[in-house]
Structures are given as structure tokens and as C-alpha cells.
Amino acid sequence: MKILFTAAEAMPFMKTGGLGDVAGALPQALNILGEDCRVIMPYYGDIADSYKRTMTSIGNVYVPLSWRYQYCGVFSQSINGVKYYFIDNEYYFKRSGCYGFYDDAERFAFFSKAILEVLPLIDFYPDVIHANDWHTALVPVYLDIFHRHRDEYRNIRTVFTIHNIEFQGKYGKELLADVLGIPQDRTSLLDYEKCCNFMKGGIETSSVVTTVSTTYAKEILDPYFSYGLDDILRNRSYKLRGVVNGIDTTVYNPRRDNALFKKYDLATIEDKEENKKGLCDLLNIPYKEGRPIITMISRLTEQKGLDLLAAVLDELLSLDIQLVILGTGDWKYETMLKEYDTRYQGKLKAIINFNADLAKKLYAGADMFLMPSKYEPCGLSQMMAMRYGTVPIVRETGGLKDTVEPFNNTTGNGTGFTFYSYNAFDMLGAIKRAIGAYNIKSDWNKIITNCMNKDFSWTKSAKEYIDIYKEIM
Ligand code: ADP
Predict the structure, then answer these.
(1) What is the DSSP string of 152-198?
(2) Does the beta carbon of 21 sit less than 6 angstroms from any atom of ligand 1?
């Protein structure tokens, strides 16, 4: 089967969050299972020169976008058995960063249109186009409006995956004609609550809509989680599925990870402690045997439960623990954490930065991983933590509920500690239960073993996607 995976970011070229991880790993898994899955993404100015130098230029076309006619170069590169295509237009993509510009709507409308226009140039007519999040939600829309009359495009099926429903690509309706070039008789595809909504267009026009966990697929039918789209999704629930994400188990592998102070696996789990010592040295915080380090590696936003942390931070820090937080995000959380870092020297370390190498050192060196999200479509960090034998403490929502099983000390089953209500004291209760288990060596070893024995690879989920592709074809 020929699949074209479209995404605004993909590892190893560009990543700002979970989408980059998924677009890096899922296509690889699909290819290993015998499919021909290729990835197409923008040629960002920020892609490392080492990658740019080894790309080949395939040619260029001009892309019509409303009254515009824009240059579009195409580069390609193969890595880990996956062919990647890059859409080049310096005006749109030669900037620092991927998102957050005043003209994001135009940039990603161009990208989505370009994907369809370059198929003859790259000579790849897929059976399925898999679009992801609002950035490429217009691909199935443009396909239906502009391309279905051509033989090569007539039977292309489309999957649209929602990685986070909060970000929908919502803009003023004046963009519909002038920027997106949507003909007047088709504007209802995108028109929603007096806005132009990219994600709504993707939901309406794709053959199947998926999201990244089964629990989140149910949650987004509820107004509490849907950011206004529950109505549309309930109408389209016949084509809504949940497929839980995996992680790249070669990149995240404590046995082979060069970022670690000392590599380890279950058989040499005592070496995890060396990573804890190394981490304390690196961060210049005191190391004490038997005192747990709790870590968070996260965007610092409301979604990630930072308000719960803020509500009980003093009480949490009065316990015999250390807290290390790595993240960037909203100014109010960054300043709060910096202030606490100064006040609680050696107890709380806040590193306001995006640092993939340090993230891995933290996954390995910490004992517990805190993720009290208000909502969480899937969440990858909790799986990465478990892979490194770091025990997750999570709120029971979305993918966190689907991937972390609460520990039961009678049966010895379970991989972490969970709480249900979005309530700071319930979170604190879960942390205290985790500390209780940490102090009983046999229980803790059992939980670590359960975590590290879990299979988080993409194989199972990739097979579920293949079933979906086959079904729509
Ligand atoms: P989301 O996509 O909502 O941000 P996920 O848990 O799905 O959350 O994925 C987050 C990914 O980004 C993980 O790979 C995590 O390790 C990484 N990450 C988040 N913040 C940082 C940071 N400050 N430095 C390095 N990696 C980070």
C-alpha cells in the first residue's frame, strides 16, 4: 500500500512536541511492516545543515493559492528506510521556528495545497494520504474541491488524525476566499461558529478521523474536552477511531542511549542509580540515597496541569523529595518555577529550556515522572519514562489512562500511580502513595519491572493503522 504521511514536523528533522515524534516513528513502523509510507513536510530554515547538505533537489512547481501563484521547490532524503519530501518556499518557511507567525494560516494552506500539486513531480500517487492536525487538515479539503476530476487522484483515500483538538486553525472568515482560495459554494466545509476552521474541514472531508488514544476518542465527544467541536464530531462519530501512539523504542532505549551517564536495562537496573548521581552532579543539587527525584518534562501550559502543581507546591516540597522540571511555555509558569527554584535551592530545580539530551538524562536519572494533565490526547513522555524505569504519576485522562495502569500492591500488577479528579490534593495523594511504595523496596522493584517489560513500540498501533487504511480502500 502507498501512503503519504503529511505533517508539519517530523523527527529527526524538526520537533516541537509529540507530533514530531509520531511522524518520525509511525512511518518507519509502517515500512517495516511492508508498506510504502513516505513523509512530506516543510523545508524549514531551522532544519540542521547536516541534513540539508545530504538532500537531493527533485525540481519545482508553482502552486496556485487563491490569486497567488507561489514557487514550490521539492527536496528529498531517505533515512531509516523512509523517504522524506520537503516543500521549499523561503518566503513561508525560512524563518526561525515552525509556528506562531501572523500568517500561519497562509503558510499551512500553501503547504497543504503544495502536497497535492507535487504528486506528479515526485511521481508518487498514494492510495492513502494521512493528514495530521490542523496544519494539514486542508489536504483532504483541497483534494475534494480541486483534484477529484483527475484519474490519479480520484481514488485517493484520506485519514485525518487529531493529535490535539485545542489547536484547530481558527481564523477570520475573510481568509476563505482571499487566502485559502475556497470557492464560494464550498465554504460551508470550513465555516464553523462564524470562523474559518481548518480542523473542521479535515473532519468533514476525510474518509476516517482518528485520534491518538481510545479514551481521548470518547472524551472529545464531550464539550469539556472538545474546544467546541463535539457537535461536528458527534455527527461524524461513525468514522472516528482511537489508536494509541507508540514511541520510538530505538531512540528511547536505556540499554543503548549515549545520552546516559551509564547505560542499563532490567538486568542491570542498579546502574540507574549512577544516572541519578550523574544528574545531581550535572544540575548541582545534592544527592541522597533513598530520596526520590520526581521530574516533569513538559510544555509549561495549562493543559499539562501546572495549576495543580502551583496549588500544592509548598506542601509537595515539604516532603523528602527533590523536584526537577524541564520545560518551556507560558510566562506565568516559567516565572513561578524560577521563583521557587531560588526559594527552594537544592529541592526544586527548574530548567527553562528545550533540551532533548537533558530530557533523556532525566528520564533515566529520576525515580518518578509527574504528568497531572488537565487533558492529554495520548502523551508520549509517560511512556518514555516507563521505558527508562521511571514510575509515572498521572491523571486518569486520555492516553494517560490508556497507558498507565495503577499499581496494586496485592496483585503486584500496575505501572504507576493515578488520580481521577482534576484536583491538586488528589494529585498530592497519588504522589504520597508513590513515595510510600518507593520506600518498600520489593514493591518498587516490581513496579519498575512492570514498566520496563511493557511494549511501547509502534508495531501494534501501526498494524491498527494498516487495518484502517485497508478498510477505507
Ligand atoms: P505534547 O506533544 O503535548 O507536548 P507529549 O508527551 O506527547 O506532549 O510529547 C512531548 C515530547 O516532547 C516528549 O518527547 C518530551 O520528552 C519532549 N519534551 C517536552 N518538553 C521538552 C523539553 N523542555 N526539552 C526536551 N524535550 C521535551
Answers:
(1) HHHT-EEEEEES-TT---EE-TTHHHHTS---GGGGGGTEETTEEEH
(2) yes
